[in-house]
Amino acid sequence: MNNIIEAHDLRKSFDKGKMKSLDGLSLTIKAGECVSIMGPSGSGKSTLMNMIGGLDKPDSGELIVDGLELSKKRDLTVFRATTIGFVFQLHNLIASQTALENVLLPMFEGSLTAANRRNRARELLDLVVLPGRNGAYPPQLSGGERQRVAIARALANSPKIILADEPTGSLDSKSSQKIMDLLMEIREKENKTLIMVTHEEAIGEQAERVIRVLDGRVAESG
Q1: Which terminus in the chain has less CB density within 10 A, N or C?
Q2: What does the H/E/C string look like for the chain?
Q3: Cβ of 103: how many Cβ atoms within 10 Å?
Q4: Nearest alpha-carbon partner for 208 in 28, 86, 32, 20
Q5: Domain of residue 92, CATH code
Q6: Which of 7-11, 39-43, 77-81, 145-149 has the highest mean pLDDT?
């Protein structure tokens, strides 16, 4: 397998350099791999996730994602819309829009017709096993159901990489495992690269590889 992500000597500071988040971090992730990134609060794992997703850029170092050197690109809007699917801890759904409408949102960046967008949104909600809930609004859904909608939305534009930031952090243990099983199944079925940031050992250890980050560097990768 080829590397889909290569990070070389990434450095990032905040507060005018007073607070180091990444301090020479380097790693590689292969296409199709399932990886968890773990570490204590302030270790730099969320900063790394934001950089991989094109939401932030390093102060120095090189980050190549799917063949694109991100620090050299000024506008990463298209990259985020087509290469990355985000799943957040608190799902970030729009409360005033139905499950179906939330899944439709990312597709407006693409070229599908309105009918094809709706068909794909329905297919994705079927994929995450949410029968009969397409017209429900987020406040009418359980935490696990909302996260299923968020996963369907992340898949809307067929991204190569799914970034899941604490995807089970707001769920009980039973719902957490169901979401993990779903992510793993979709990753295999859809041939995605799955990268999770989590502080939960029971969740992180389910990945093929655990990358532990400490003080802005990779402390362990295996």
Answers
A1: C
A2: CCEEEEEEEEEEEECCCCEEEEEEEEEEEECCCEEEEECCCCCCHHHHHHHHCCCCCCCEEEEEECCEEHHHCCCCHHHHHHHEEEECCCCCCCCCCCHHHHHHHHHHHCCCCHHHHHHHHHHHHHHCCCCCCCCCCHHHCCHHHHHHHHHHHHCCCCCCEEEEECCCCCCCHHHHHHHHHHHHHHHHHHCCEEEEECCCHHHHCCCCEEEEEECCEEEEEC
A3: 30
A4: 32
A5: 3.40.50.300
A6: 7-11
Round to whole Å and give the CA distance between 157 and 211: 27
89/47 Cα distance (integer angstroms): 15
**What amino acid occupies position 125?**
L
Nearest Cα residue to 217 out of 44, 46, 59, 30: 44
The pLDDT of residue 1: 64
pLDDT in tens, 28-60: 999 999 999 999 888 999 899 999 999 999 999
- pLDDT of 47: 92
Over residues 94-109, the pLDDT tens digits come to 999 999 999 999 888 7
Indicate the number of domains in the chain.
1
Residue 9 has pLDDT above 90, yes or no: yes
